[in-house]
């Protein structure tokens, strides 16, 4: 190593230690002169951003919290709405909708559950870990896509929550006001951070699940004997599968964000099992219910009226209306169900902003929850009346990049680093020169789209291969990225001389 390189490394190390020192200062430090900041820290508000959690601070042993977090994140009306797309957009019958939901979610829930196991072993957030594949600067591109993904989900959730809240108020409350209410509740939870978020997610799913059960009990008699449909084609099934992939697989970009405080000696299988069960049970159950309800809606005048214009909130309100005034209360609970998902997403957005703009690592994490809210509210209001177009286009697109991303970071972990956490030098998390260049990862991901584009089927474009096979873009993105990454990465290591 040259003297110049040694000097650069020394500067990087000094800067890193300074950043960590500032981020981990106790509230009594002279640097925290602001009384407001001291008070927030004393109330347990988490200020730590993307700085790794040292092994001695990974002390949380309530490992079942990750089950409740994933379960609560998905027991909401957006999950229900995603299930309606099979019949409403692709014309699938109930049987084929439910089979597609089951089998593709088994596949797509596995990656985020697996990546959640990395948090306790490394103490790093998901996009920080991904720097060990994409590099310090290269990860900015996946990070931008992940931010778009998370903001998009938050917008969809705000729209649905606002619709449901307005429906419960019999038109006395606008969708705009409903959206603002939902966003502010989510902000309060995400602002507080890890402890409050986990507490909220551990309890908030209970009334929501009870509400769905009551809705099923009241309207379940209409879900039997669904009307016959035209025979499904492979293109319809794969198109719906691509939507489902965009829903579940994109949790991979934030998986370990919620497990970095767990004890490092926890069994990987335990974290995987809790995570996989939390994701699969909630997503499959509510998506199948959504498919069944939207198929039955045209035969029930009240449901059809509530559902007019693709108003999922109005449809759910119509389902619980027979319970009288209690139904309005249930509709309010359903509207608030999205807050858990938005809060968890805002939490990860606040971390990803620090990856996107590295100098912001010295800013307390909770500040960026405010930024996320300021972005999501106006876009939700603007897009509120085009929900089905929005969700179909959005979920159909985001599965592609997420598949390529997952293939690359999993191969890096399993093959290049031999599934061994010890092969990650945790001191390199913010040292650009000691991390991979990211060229191999970016090249593999970008090159895969040479084949992904002909295999995608969207409203605005259908590739020549997709015209025959249906949308197989997310499967191709995973496979091609995996094939390209290993030779690219091995060449990168040979040229640079380090992993």
Q: What features would you describe in this structure?
A:
This protein is mainly alpha-helical. Helix content is 69%, strand content 0%. α12 packs across α19 and α15 (312-320) packs antiparallel against α16 (325-336).
Topology (SSEs and partners):
Blueprint: H1 3-23, H2 35-42, H3 65-74, H4 77-90, H5 94-115, H6 118-122, H7 126-129, H8 131-134, H9 140-168, H10 175-192, H11 194-219, H12 234-248, H13 268-296, H14 301-306, H15 312-320, H16 325-336, H17 338-356, H18 367-383, H19 387-416, H20 439-455, H21 466-469, H22 473-496
Share in helix = 55-70%
Ranges with pLDDT <50 over ≥5 residues? Answer: 1-33
Strand content: under 5%
Count of alpha/pi helices: 22
Average pLDDT works out at: 86
3D shape: globular
Organism: Laccaria amethystina LaAM-08-1
Protein name: Purine-cytosine permease
Membrane topology: Multi-pass membrane protein
GO molecular function: transmembrane transporter activity
Task: List key phrases describing it.
499 residues; mainly alpha; Hydantoin permease; 22 helices; 69% helix; 0% strand; disordered N terminus; transmembrane; transmembrane transporter activity; Pur-cyt_permease_Fcy2/21/22
Summarize the structure.
One of its GO terms (cellular component) is plasma membrane. This protein is mainly α and 499 residues long. The protein has 22 helices and no strands.
